[in-house]
Amino acid sequence: MTVAQTYTVLGMACGHCETFVAEELRQLDGVESVSVDVDGDSVTVISRHSLESDRVADAVSRAGYELIVTDQ
Question: 35 with 44: CB under 8 angstroms?
Fold first, then answer.
């Protein structure tokens, strides 16, 4: 079973931003794929299990951007 989770990420402006965010998120345990929409300020992560939002926020922060955490 896979889980799709979509997050709002602030500060992305170009393809480089997309690459940095995707690379960090792909390193999280269980992540199978990452889709980044720079224009929509969103990231969708497909994983083998639900990811903890603090782990996702840390990965996004390492890439240099800010994750907006909302109740999902």
Answer: yes
The 10s digit of each residue's pLDDT in 5-57 is: 999 999 999 999 999 999 999 999 999 999 999 999 999 999 999 999 999 99
DSSP string over the chain = --EEEEEEEES--SHHHHHHHHHHHHTSTTEEEEEEETTTTEEEEEESSPPPHHHHHHHHHHHT-EEE----
Given CA atoms 10, 41, 63, 14 in this order, what sign does their dihedral have?
A: negative
Work out the end-to-end distance of the chain between its first and last CA atoms, rounded to an integer number of angstroms.
18
**44: alpha, beta or left? (left if phi > 0; alpha if psi -120 to 50):** beta
